[in-house]
Model the fold of this input.
Amino acid sequence: MYRREFLARVTAGSAALLCGFGKPAAANVPAGYKVTYFDVRPPGGKAGSRDVTAAGDGTFWFCGQRNGTLGRLDPATGRVRVVELGSGSAPHGVVRGPDGAAWVTDGGLNAIVRVDPVSHALKAWKLPERVRYANLNTAVFDPAGRLWFTGQSGIYGRFAPASEKMDVWDAPRGAGPYGITRTPQGTIWYVSLAGNHLAQIEDLDSGRVRVVEPPTAGQGARRVWSDRAGRLWISEWNSGNVSMHDPRDATWKVWRLPGERPRAYSVWVDPSDKVWLTDFATNAIVRFDPGTEKFTAFPSDRFGANVRQMDGIDGQAWGGESGNDRLVRIEYGV
Done:
């Protein structure tokens, strides 16, 4: 393992409003918000900064998918610590575990990787030999402290850190498992991009799955996040919709993002149950208020941002601009 450090370059203030594709026009950030960009491109290279997660101490982890690293940004100082994950690494997702560590789904290593929160020491667990390339995507911990993960090649799995036991199952409809979430009620759900559906891991012991059909055919469900009530918010890549499924009464609601051809990539629900999405078509982060059904857009000030999975803390929404090697922070209620 190799660690290195550098300082991020920081810019803040105005954003850009995209009028269609590739036509930026200067605009101010809406009142009550502040946008800050952190340039985390390593000296002499590219990281491909993508999925982010809060580390629990004010810093943020982010995956460097292009250079096989996990970065840790301290926004107070601009300091970036970089952990090399190993030859062939291509980390996709990162979550903070009950132990405070960063847990990484590494598609390049075909492994689950733990990064110690203090020493940054690594430990990796390869998937079973029969799963030669899972195309690992996203992970979440269940109430018992077991890590559930998805693989786009057509698998989902569970890893128990206490016993180091790993189970992998074939997804009910083959390729596509992508985003995954845990509700406050302790249930685990994932979505399938290629399979165009939502699924509940109905039995956390046996791994049995129940498929739930969204109302929009071929929607390309990409990511999923739960609000405080256990309602599931889904970003639909193909349709450009954000949809909401309420398991309590099996109902759905659907809203289309602004613009002619939206492409909703990620979704994150903040502590006040406002829904944050990323739209590749308009190069923007979009906030949706379920109460008013109003969208507020925060276009990037650079082309090709491609913001991947968001996360945040109360008062701050965070994302990784994978195309620009930057992290973006949107402070709200300011």
